[in-house]
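dumping this here before i forget
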Amino acid sequence: MSFGNALLSSMARHGDRLAVVSGREKLTYADLLVQSERLAFNLRTLGVERGSRVGLAMQDTLDVVLAILACWRLSATPVIVDFRAPRAQRARIARDFDVRVTLETRTPPGSDIYPAVIFDKQWRLSAAGNPPSDEMDCSNPAFLLLSSGTTGDAKAYIQTHASLSARITQRKAVMDASEMRFLTPMTLSYSASRHQVLGYLFFGGTISFFPPLFAPSELAEALLAFGATGAALPPPIIARLAREAGDRAGVLFPRLASLYSIGGPATADEKIAAFTRLTRGYRISYASSLTGMVSLLAGEDVLAKPESSGRPVEGVKVQILDGNGQVVPIGERGAIRAWTKTMASAVLLPGNQPFVDASVMGDGWGMPGDIGFVDADGFLTIVDREGDMIVRGGVNVAPQELEKLIRAHPKVADVAVVGFPDDTMGQEIAAFIVPEGEVTLDELRLFLNTNIAPDRRPRELRMIRALPYSENGKLLRRKLADTLAQERSSERK
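structure:
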C-alpha cells in the first residue's frame, strides 16, 4: 500500500475531527477527503494522469495539502515549488524534471515558457463525473524533493512512498503525544515542514496554518491562543522568540510539548535559550533531503551537549570517513556517512534521468556532504558543509568554527564566513559581520588578530545590516561570496 492510501485510510477513521484551520476556513478530516477527491477530478481534466509530475506553487498551504492528496489519488507525483520562486526557476524545474503542469497562485513576470495554470479554489469545492480510484500506484514516487541547499540550482531526489512512510513514522518521536495541536507559518516547499504536516494529519492532529509574514510577538500570541502543543520553526525565528521571552522564571510556552527546529543550524547559546525560555520540548535534528533524519538533540542533552546535533536516531548508523573513505577514530573529523531506512532512492538529473551517484549514495547509505565528528558519548557534531570548506594555502578552514570564535565578541550580533578566489593562496577568507551597538572595523580586526591564528584569519571584513537567510533558516553563503566577487571584479576594472 502507498503512503497516500494509508493516509487516506487514516483520515477516514478520523472523520468529523477538526483537521485544519487556515484563516477563516475550518476543515474536518471528512472535508479534506471530499475536497481532495473533487480536486483530483479537476486535475484529471488538465491532463494529469498516472505517472504525471505536478508542480505546486500555491501560496495557500491548505491548497497545497489538498493538491498533494489529489495527486496521490491519481497516482501522480507532486513537485512542491516555493510560491516565491521566479519564473525562470519554475520554467527550469518544469523542463529539467518533466513537470506536466504547474499550479500557481499567480504567474511571475518574465518571458520563460512552461506549462502552468492559475489554481482555482473552486476546483476543490465542486466537480462532475466519476471520482478517481483510491487505489494508488505506489511504484510512482511520492514526491520529487527539490533541494538547492545553500548553493546552486535545485536538484531533485526521488522519494518513494515507502521512504516517505518511514520518515513520517520516524518523526512520530519528535511530535507531541497529547492533543497534537500543531501550528506552523512555514510553506511546504521544505521537506521538514511537509513531513511534520503530513505526520500530524496521519496521526489525527489539528493543524493551524499561520500566515508566513508575521512579527515574533504575533506568532507567540498565536501559539498561545491556539493552545499549540507542537510547532516547527527555523532557528532564526526560534532565536527571536527566545529574545522576546527574555530571562524568566518559567518557560513561555508550557503547553508546547514539541518545538522542532527545522532548516539550518543553531548556535549552542540559541539552543539553550530555546530550551530554558520557550519550552522543555525544544528539539533540533540533523537531517537532509537525501538521508532523512540522522540525529536528534532533545531533553537534558540540549544543556549537556549544546554544540552537538544529538545522538543518531533509532535505526540510523553514522560513520565518519577520511579522504580515502576509511572510518576515522572517535573524535576525529571527516565526511559524514549515514545508514537509514529513509534514504531517497535516486537523484533525478535534468532530462528526467534517475541516477544513483555511487560516491554519495548506495544500498541504504548516503553522504549528505557535511563534515563532522562523533564523540565518546555517541553525539554527532557538525563542523561544516563540505562544499563550504575554505582551502587557504592548502589549509582547510571551516567557516562555522571561525563564526563561533567571532561571535564571542560582545558587539557581534551575527556573522558569516566565506571563501573567495585568490591568485596566491587559492582562496582567501572574508567575514561579513552584523554589529550590535557601536563597533569599528579596527576593533574587530584587533579582536581577530588576538584570537585567530594568522593562517585562518579573515583578510576581508565587511559590516552589514543583516545576513541573507532562506525562508527555512539556511545561511545563503553563496550569495555573500557572489557579492564579494562582483565587488572585487569591479575594483579591478
